[in-house]
Amino acid sequence: GLYLNELIVRLVPDHDPHLDLFSAYQEALSGLESTDNYEAVLRLFEVKLLLEMGYGLNLGADCSTGEGIEKEAWYDYRIDSGAIKTVKGQALGTCVSGACLLALDSGEIDTAEIRSEAKRFMRYVFSHYLGGRPLRSRELFSKIQES
After folding, report:
1. Are strands 74-78 and 82-86 parallel, antiparallel or unpaired?
2. DSSP H or E run through 94
3. Which element (helix H / strand E) includes 145?
4. Helices (H), 78-132
5. Can you give the pLDDT at residue 102?
6. Do 69 and 60 touch, CB atoms closer than 8 A?
7. Contact 130, 111 (CB under 8 A)
8. In this structure, what are the phi and psi dihedrals at residue 86, rounded to the nearest 5 degrees?
9. Mean pLDDT, 10 residues at a time, the chain of 147 residues
10. Alpha-carbon gap, residue 113 to 101, rounded angstroms
11. If you count Cβ atoms within 10 Å of the first and of the last residue's Cβ in the chain, which end, N or C, has fewer?
């Protein structure tokens, strides 16, 4: 919950009404209480937060061709435009699998591999919107895990 709160405080302007965001926040808090797949709950909230803020991610189509994302393909994801099919390791933005993009789009973040990749991908996205400033909650969680 601390992480969710920090994202909201850092990204949502004061007194800016976002009723759908409040519902997503409540849903995420309930999800964190009722499942052990908290990574999926967090990623889905992140996607909804970006959408609500007007920064929705283009997760379903290659922005250069308009074709649907292919599960087996790799994509160069650029914040300003979206996914462009590429060869793994040759991205100018961040390289992300089609499987990860489709999982984030559908909300089915159910394997350890996808959860890990989705976390890395969303950190890349949020780093951009946070201006590269780290989240304090991540620092706290890192210290807790070290002890």
Report:
1. antiparallel
2. strand 94-97
3. helix 136-146
4. 98-106, 112-129
5. 97
6. yes
7. no
8. -150, -175
9. 89 80 92 91 95 92 97 95 90 90 95 95 94 74 58
10. 13
11. C
